[in-house]
Amino acid sequence: MNLRTPDWHRTATRWTQLTLTENDPVEFDPAFWIDVMRRTRSNAACISAGGYMAFYPTRIPFHYRSRHLGDGDPFGELVAGARGLGMHVMARVDPHAVHTDALAAHPEWVARTPDGAPREHWAFPGTYVTCPFGPYNREFVTEVARELMREYDIDAIFANRWQGHGVSYSEHARRSFFDATGHELPLEPYDPDDLAWKAYVPWRRQQLSELVALWDTAVKDIRPHARFIPNLGSLAVHELDRDLIERHYPFFVLDRQGRTGIEPPWTAGRNAKRSRGAFRDRPAVLISSVGPEHHAHRWKDSVAGPAEIRMWIVDGFAQGGLPWFTKFNGVVPDDRWVAPVVDAFGLHAAVEPVLSRMRVTADVAVFDTAEPGGDPHEDGFHQALVEARIPFEFVSATRFTPEELGRFRVLVLANAERLSDEACAAVREFVRAGGGVVAGYRTSLQTADGTPRADFGLADVLGVHLEQDARGPVKNNYIALTGEHPLSAGYEGARRIIGGTHLVRVAAAPDADVPFRFVPDYPDLPMEELYARRPPEDPAVVARQGEGRTVHIAFDLGSLFWEALQPDHGRLIANAVTWALGGPHRVAVSGPGLHDIAVHEGDDELAVCLVNLTNPGAMRGPVRELIPVGPLTVSVALPDGRTGASARLLVAGAEPDVTVADGRVSVVVDSVELLEVLHVTWDR
Fold first, then answer.
1. Is the pTM of this model over 0.90?
2. Domains, the chain, ranges and CATH?
3. What's the pLDDT band for 239 if we cut at 50, 70, 90?
4. For 267, how many CA atoms within 13 A lie in the half-sphere containing its CB?
C-alpha cells in the first residue's frame, strides 16, 4: 500500500468512519474501533477531529473543545491505532455551526436570515449556523486544517456540511454576490425563473469550488501528499467548477447513506454511475450508514437491518463506488451492524483484486438531467432497465460531447426537455455515426436556459414534429399496436396497452414507423360509456431507422412507470432500448429475480457483477432478508478474434462449465444470495 504519497487515495478502497459525540472521550472504547477496522479489512479511516467540536487538544481560539476532553486526545489515539494497521487516515471536520461564545466574538462567522438576524440551528437551539462564504470558512476552518496537519500523521481533511444550509444573507455574502452579479441575494424558496436565482447558482458553484481549492492548497503546504476532501452530500459533482475539480479533487465522497421512503436499492449504484458520468477518471467513494435513513425522523444513532446494510453497500461497489461505512457515536449499545458490515466489506475485498484492474462499461447511456430533488422520468427508465437486466451508464450534461457519446451504442433521453443547440448537434452526430437514441415525452422542446422551442430540437433526428404540446392529466388513455414491429414484442394477445397521463401530439416523418398510436379519448365513467368511439389516430411511439435508430415516445412513459410500475410500460422501455441497439446485447442475463447488473472490462477479461435485489421490500424498504435466486444464465458475446473463454465465480470460488455457441459464451450460475461476480478470461 502506498502510504504518504501523492496517489495514496488509489489504495484507500474500504473506509471506516467514526463520528464522535461530546461524551465519547470518557465513554467509548478505542480498542473496539481499532478491532472493527481490522475485521472489516478497512484500509482507510475517517475520524472526527474538529470544526463544530474538537476531539483533540486544539489551541485555536473559539474552537470549541468537548467538555469531556480533559487531558485526553481520542482523535490522536484513533489515528495511532489506524496507522498501526497500515491504514490511510483522514480527519473529519464539521464547520456548519458554532456556539454562542463564537457568535459573540465573531458575528461575521454566522449565516443570517433575510432580516439580518443570526440563523439559529434548526435542531440544537443555542448554536448557530455558519456562513459558508465568509471568514469562518476561509480563515477559521483553514487554520483548523493547518493545525491538524501540523500535529498529526494524517493524509487528508474531510469536511462535512461545509457548503451551507439555505441562502446566507450575511453582509459578506450580500456584498460578494452583488459585486459579482449586480443582484441582491434571491429570496427563498427557489424560483428557476428568477434572475437572481439564475445568477446565484453559478456564483455559489464558483465560491464553493474556490473554497475547496483554498483548503486543499493550505494542507498541501504542510504535507505535500495531503488533500482536502469535501463531502458532496447536498451537491453533485456537476455543480462544481470543472477546472478547479481537475486540480483539487483526487476523488469524490458521495453522501447518500441509505434508502429513505420508497427509494429502490439500486439508488446506491446510481450514485457511483452519476459521479463517473461527469468525471470518469476520479474514484467515487459511497458513504453508507449502519442505521436507517429516514429523513423525517432522523434515527441517526440506530441500527438498520443486516440485509439492508449489506445490499446497499454491495450494490454501490458492484457499480464501481468504493465502500465507506459510518457510525455516529463511539459508544455501541447495539452492535448488530458489525457483522453485516464485515460481510459486505469482505465481499469487496474478495472481488477487488479483479475489479480494480478493470473499468465499468456499458453499451447504453442515460442522460443525467440532474434535476434538483430527482427526476421521476429518469427513475422510471432506470427501474425498467434494471428489471430488463440491461447494464447502463450515465452521461453528464457537463460532458455531453460527441467523444463522450461515442463510448456508447444507445443514448436514453428519458425526458431531457432542456437541451442546448450544442447538445442537439452532439446527438445528431451520434446518430449519423450509427448510434441509437430513445427519447421520451418533451425531450428537446426547450433550450438549455428553458426557452421554449416551436418544434423539437431533435425533430430531424427523431422523425417527429410537434403539433401540440403536452396536455393532461388524461385519464383512461390507451395506445394501440398498429402491426408487427420489434417494439411490440411480448404483447401477444393484446391489441392495445395502457398509454399515458400527459400526451404530446406529434406528426411522424414519412420514413418513420409508428408501432403504437393513441386511442382517442373516451370517458372512464359511467361504465356503460367506457368504449372507444374512433380508431387509433395520433402517433404514440415513433421508430425510425437510417444511419442510426431512434425512438420517440410521445407521453410520460418514464414517470408513469415509476408511479404505477405497470409491466407493459417497463417492457416498452426495454424493447425501445433493445431495438435502438440494432443487435443483441453484449451481456444478457436470463432467469428469475430482480438483479442490478454491472459489466467491468479489462484487457482480455470481463467481469459481470450480479447483485440480487429480489425482495418484497425492494421498492419499499427496508429489506428484511436476502433471498437466494437461481439458476441464472449469463451470456456474453465473444470479442473479435476470440474463440472461447474460461470462467470463475469470484464469490462462490468455483469454476463453472463454459458453453460456446453462435459467437457467445454462456455460463450457468446456480444461485446468487446477494452478489456473484462472473470473471471471464478470453481465449485467443
1. yes
2. 1-235 (3.20.20.80), 364-581 (3.40.50.880), 587-683 (2.60.40.1180)
3. low
4. 24
